[in-house]
Amino acid sequence: MASKAMTVNEALDRALPLGHPERLFESMRYSLFAGGKRVRPMLALAACELVGGDEAAALPVACAVEMVHTMSLIHDDLPCMDDDHLRRGRPTNHVAFGVSTALLAGDALLARAFEHVARECTEHGVPADRALRAVAELASAVGTDGLVAGQVVDLASEGADVDLATLEYIHVHKTARLLEAAAVCGGIVSGGADEEIEGIRRYARYVGLLFQVVDDVLDVTRTSEQLGKTAGKDIATDKATYPKLMGMDGARAYAAELVASAEAELDRFDGTRTEPLRHLAHFIAYRQH
Amino acid sequence: MASKAMTVNEALDRALPLGHPERLFESMRYSLFAGGKRVRPMLALAACELVGGDEAAALPVACAVEMVHTMSLIHDDLPCMDDDHLRRGRPTNHVAFGVSTALLAGDALLARAFEHVARECTEHGVPADRALRAVAELASAVGTDGLVAGQVVDLASEGADVDLATLEYIHVHKTARLLEAAAVCGGIVSGGADEEIEGIRRYARYVGLLFQVVDDVLDVTRTSEQLGKTAGKDIATDKATYPKLMGMDGARAYAAELVASAEAELDRFDGTRTEPLRHLAHFIAYRQH
């Protein structure tokens, strides 16, 4: 997994070299290379491997998904949103570069993601219809059916009593949809058959929820230093979380159930190729930050 | 032209019906249907006509460009950017919906633009390679080579002495690039030959600059009521403008020169098909708001 992360980091470095206006590029790169775990790109590469594709074909969508993810972190941290000052152990983008540059860096990363898929897929011989399906999939994970919808409902729920259905809506849209898109796009550009793509989608939905359940648990159990971001914030802001609504044991049991369901989806695939996606499910479940 | 605008408005209405979360959709539609002139969509449709394409093929990119344009207006108006309160005679998006919703509505419009091109082009039989080229063209007009780059340099230049080269950089990126992308995308999805696309691009570059020169002139000569936005703002903020740097007569002469250059680019095309693009150049040059 470490070698995959290095492959992704090198591809991202090539995808976004410094340019003019310099401050804008610095701001974009500051967040893009802030030590992210690259879970989404690795999902894309693992899905590519699952359907027997060529890694080079999946790297463009892997990079694009990480650009989208980075944009969402920058915008979510802004003062008018969650007003966060610490991310991955460093000042957030707007603290380091100012609010207007941070906002624009996010916009530019979002646009760059789609440009990258369109240009690099063509460059790497991915058929245009597959690349176009990936654009639609990725875009739908950002807007009114994805990240943005989740953030709108999240902000509207602050300080309110949130039930499990609303909590699940927020997390499906804010977190799970993009993880799903990462895996699905990796499968699409690699030429996965329709029923394979649907299997990947179901796997990724479980993993997406799992990711958030574990995130909520870690917010309670780990320190800020261990997390690289402000810990205990959910409790301090009385935010609805899985531990709050299910209890800590309930949340942990739910996480275990989600891992099992995700793995079950992989059973229909060629066993030797499922290893990376199994590994990722475990990595997400048992990570410590 | 009025009937084309109606076609565009109907297509936009279909492209973004109300949905959940309601407030997000209301915010997106508030700005998308705020009485914009639809210059960019009409450029796309006119370029389609120039190369003998089918209007239905060009409508998706026409709508997408207007979504991108609307997103840029919403984000540019935000308090951390230009802090504008009036746009097209109505409160700006963040005044009406709050800063966080406005920011997210912009993000969602940007994502929706790409999703719309990807899905609707497929739906209308546009070959995937053309649609993918349009995605790349449109995305490049938004990010580090387009809108965002222009806005970054614009914000950095506030209160500073700006020379004509910097002014031109700002306007090429903030305004002209998206007008160019509109026309070029219209040509691409309609199957224009490479040399036709390049002719359209040159035409659109002149028209893009023209648009901004006229904008600057109108800011001096018209009232807020006539413009539907705060007039005289450029002088009040001592902003670099064409009239300031070239004098009013110089700016008007430059505009006339740009119209002539744009029209000259059309001379190589079939005469009967050039009418819509000629008309648009004149409309942009002689508009009163």
Automatic annotation (TrEMBL), chains A, B:
Q: What is this protein called?
A: Geranylgeranyl pyrophosphate synthase, chloroplastic
Give the GO molecular function terms.
metal ion binding; prenyltransferase activity
Note the superkingdom of the native organism: Eukaryota
Please indicate if the UniProt record lists Secreted as a keyword.
no
The record's section on NCBIfam families has: FPPsyn
Xref: InterPro entries: Isoprenoid_synthase_dom_sf, Polyprenyl_synt, Polyprenyl_synt_CS, Prenyl_diphosphate_synthase
Q: In which pathway does it act?
A: Isoprenoid biosynthesis
GO (cellular component) term, any one:
cytoplasm
Q: Which SUPFAM superfamilies match?
A: Terpenoid synthases
Report the source organism. Aegilops tauschii subsp. strangulata (Goatgrass)
- List required co-factors: Mg(2+)
